[in-house]
Amino acid sequence: MSSTADTLRLTLHTSALAGMRASRPKSLVRALSYQAEDEVPEAAEYATEADFQDTLHASHATDQLVELWRKQLTQWDYADTPAWTETEPRTDERRTAVLTMLGLGEETQKLLTTLVPVPKAAGPVVIATEHTPWYTPQAQQGYSWYWPAYRRLLSDKGWPETAVAGLDIASDRVVERLADPTSETAYQSKGLVVGYVQSGKTANFTGVIAKAMDAGYRLVIVLGGSLNLLRNQTQRRLDMELVGRENILRGAAEYESDYADDPAWAKGKFLSHGGLPSALGGFDIVRMTTRHKDYNSLLQGIVALEHEKQEPALPLHDPRNLHRASARLMVVKKNKTVLTKLVQDLNKIKTPLSEIPVLIIDDESDEASVNTTNPAKPDAERPAINQKISELLRMLPRAQYVGYTATPFANVFVDPSDTEDIFPKDFIVSLPRPTGYMGVQDFHDLDSPVPYGERTFADSNERAHVRDIVLDSDEDNTALQQSLDMFVLTAAMKLYREANGLGDRYFQHHTMLIHVSVRMDDQRELLARASQLWWNSGYTGPSGHERLRELFETDLAPVSRVRADGHAVPSTYEDLAPYIGAAAIRIGGDDQPIIVVNGDKDLETGEADFDKRSIWKILIGGQKLARGFTVEGLTVSYYRRRTNNASTLMQMGRWFGFRKGYQDLVRLYLGRAEVMGKKDVDLYEAFEAICRDEETFRQELERYAEPVDGRPQVTPAQVPPLVSQRLPWLKPSAPNKMFNAELVEVRSPGVWVEPTAYPTAPQELRHNAETWAPIIAQLAQEPVPFVHLSANDRGSYTTYSARTCVVPHNELLAVLNGLVWGRPDLMGPHLRYLRDAGDTGCGTDDWAVIVPQTSGPKSVKATILGGDALSLVQRSRRARGVFNRISGMAHRQAAERIAGVHPLTEEDPFASVFHRPRRGALLLYPVIATDLGTPESLITDSGQISPGKVVLAIAFVPATDRHSKASPLVRFRAINSALEGEAVIDTP
Questions:
Q1: Cα(433)–Cα(361) distance, integer angstroms
Q2: What are phi and psi for residue 639, nearest 5 degrees?
Q3: CA quadruple 251, 257, 259, 260: dihedral sign
Q4: Under a CB-based contact definition with an 8 Å cutoff, are residues 691 and 664 in contact?
Q5: N or C terminus: which one in the chain shows less Cβ crowding within 10 Å?
Q6: DSSP-H helix ranges across 376-519
Q7: Is 404 helix (H, G, I), strand (E, B) or coil?
Q8: Pick from 268, 59, 19: nearest CA to 156
Q9: Contact 580, 588 (CB under 8 A)
């Protein structure tokens, strides 16, 4: 096919789709024919479905025409509650509705969906109070300026259309829960947006600011962290992607810009509006802060904060004034002096503060902003930053407060009854994990079905990316030397990939982070140690090559061969060796391979400004690199810093983020036995515990986000009881109030439930064993096999045998009611649900009881209170006697089939045998806690084990709810019924 035909066809489809963009999908052939009338006569032959179908047959996913359709289909796939369909977004049903409205035949639909698959990405999760809808497409017509510009910029930067559409939806969820800026009645909404560490929260709040300004918010205050480094970073990002060149210059010459020395300014990467927005029918943004200047008192006159009114007799928030006024933007540091100046200046302006719609964005809102004062202390004063934020909220009745964080526990534990504090009383939005993001889960094997000793680089994130730091003494440099070697090796790998497909300077940055302490004396000593190791490493000599060869052959190469995702991997060390010298020179050729980033000017041997230059360096840092600051190109981390606060520890995980082109090269060297006080702590275990706590929190939010009968199941004030803690020394946050909300019932049809808190006292364990004895006695003598099938139908499977029986619901419930639980408050809500066996309750008539049995040389069996021997399993206890997990991942799938969660399959025949409508499934495990010793050491010569040493632990899944009767999934009650309407009660 000629290029002329391709161009003409692309022109027709571009014009046809452009005509539908603002309305809805319409007949494609009719639209193409209409556009063809204005083209050359031969255009008509490309305006048919047959031509489109033939083209799709010969197309690849990256062809221009397919990319054009991908962009438009994605917008329709993501459209939220459009007027032209009732189908849910990002579903097969939505795509079918779109293609049908386009008038396409079945074959064309199939081809198009194959080339452009339906995006199934999760959307944001919202927990909110009821609100009055105001942010609608109809209300925004004619006013959008900055959001369309931001959206275009992201597309031009190469963002996938699915990512742009996802950001559109997520930012809508925030803006729609702010107050209507044009409303006559002032309302102050407070919310919290929960993202992941270094996962794109700034992009979300940039989108929120753009949409809020378009809607009428005319003063935006961004609290950009507590360090100049963070404030400056946020200011630059907003100036580049939202404010734009014309608003920055405001008629000045290019060389007068505060970004004149910024390479991105010279390269035209800053947003351009094509002229001053106010001259083009939009409105301007007036910057009250600049790249290197935080907010200062306006010595030239307070007029800069004044808002102009076209109709002086009307309030500023009247649409006739609001949409013709400029917006003010300031990015301020969380600093008492700076915020005091702002409060003072606001009190001086003539525009009544009650008329100004204000948006306050608090980046890293769990740091410095929260009131940490003990309310039990008499005359307790708020911390300085919290006090100033409270003053702003008090003096600006139309101010909306939105906090952003990846570690939300401190925010949800704020006292909701304190009306001047920042508790997110109106909404909590949990952002989905972005595509391509490398987070804490990517360094752990959470719930892996593969036994620990059998894991490989291919199926184990820990084996692929994590390296232990276990030192013989304080002078032991073994792990630090290996991490430096890995940094050089991965640098060479990046150069190799640039030379083999990615192109020159694809990797602008390549960094290593060393984080051991926030104390500057420690960092000074560490700088000297690391420098000595670097200069004695001999990377261009025989000794250096010998070490690098061994590390390449035992670590880097075997990992990359199974995880490179199509990127180039050298076959031998000899193929990589030519790049080693260049890598070492790129890092240390200026005699400064190490940059210390901690604010101590005497120690700063270089500048870690990723915006100004390409950086291939080793960074030693503490607080400045622990929160908010993005370490670009981070590939190797050496981390040993201890903390007893989960939020702080999580924020130090600078190794989380987007690692395009080098995810397989990422390595984390982590302390496994670090001294903290009187105990040794395993930092890898700590990160895993945090990961589980946070994922549980997010899952709970998702589970209860669906309204019931049009009303929210859970309000933000009821969220704190859903926060969990797995390690006793690692607290999520330290609340000084107890919330007056108690979780009393959890409805879980078809949902996996796994209690992990069991008693430790021998007499209570014996009691539980005796309570289970009647059920155990019913187990069939002959075990049956169950099957776990691999995800994505890869053909692999795992089998296990189990003793089984079926018991009536009431009989099992009597056992569960008779047990002693380690945390009755955790199990109680589930028991309350199980007690209701009717259609509106758990809907379960009986239960398949499954006791997995092991075989082989490592299998350990024993009899408990007589009877047949059962396989024992060993698990480690954590906080308050809590286990991390009880069930084996390979055991769950068959149980879920029995309960109706998964479809039955011939490949798991016994699950089909046991399945019945209204039947649940329960896994029972005789568990030996590791602190008691090995199971073998506890068994008598006669093969018995004391029931006082066995935890009979369970995991279960109630029958799926086949009845559509609406019933809440979660229910709370007031702890103090005399304070039914109060959110908190004083802790005794």
A1: 21
A2: -130, 125
A3: positive
A4: no
A5: C
A6: 384-395, 409-412, 461-465, 478-497
A7: strand
A8: 268
A9: no
Identify the CA nearest to 788 among candidates 457, 446, 448, 445. Answer: 448
pLDDT for residue 970 is more than 90: no
Contact 375, 737 (CB under 8 A): yes
CA angle, 895 as apex, 932 and 852 as ends, to 5°? 35
DSSP-derived pairing of the beta strands 358-363 and 399-405: parallel
Residues 6+ apart with CB under 8 A from 419: none
Contacts of 51 (CB under 8 A, 6+ apart): 9, 45
Phi, psi at residue 675, to the nearest 5°?
Answer: -80, 125
3-state secondary structure of 873: strand
Q: Is 7 left (phi over 0), alpha (psi -120 to 50) or beta?
A: alpha
- Per-residue pLDDT of 372-395, as tens digits, reads 555 545 555 667 888 888 899 999
> Given this model, what pLDDT does residue 21 score?
82
Residue 808's nearest CA partner among 849, 840, 748 is 849
Query: What amino acid occupies position 281?
Result: G
* Token output for 756: 């992990």
Q: What is the 3-state composition of the chain as percent helix, strand, coil, each rounded to the nearest 5?
A: 40, 15, 45
Q: Name, of 222-231, 303-312, 403-412, 848-857, the range with top average pLDDT.
A: 848-857
Please state the length of the chain. Answer: 988
Cα gap 721→726, rounded to integer Å: 15
Nearest-angstrom CA–CA distance, 517 and 326 = 46
Who wins on pLDDT, 405 or 179?
179
Distance CA 355, CA 649 (A): 42
Exposure b/e, 336-346, CB count within 10 A at least 16 = b:
eebbebbbebb
Tokens of 761: 């006292």
Taking each helix axis from N to C terminus, what angle separates 336-346 and 384-395, rounded to the nearest 10 degrees?
A: 20
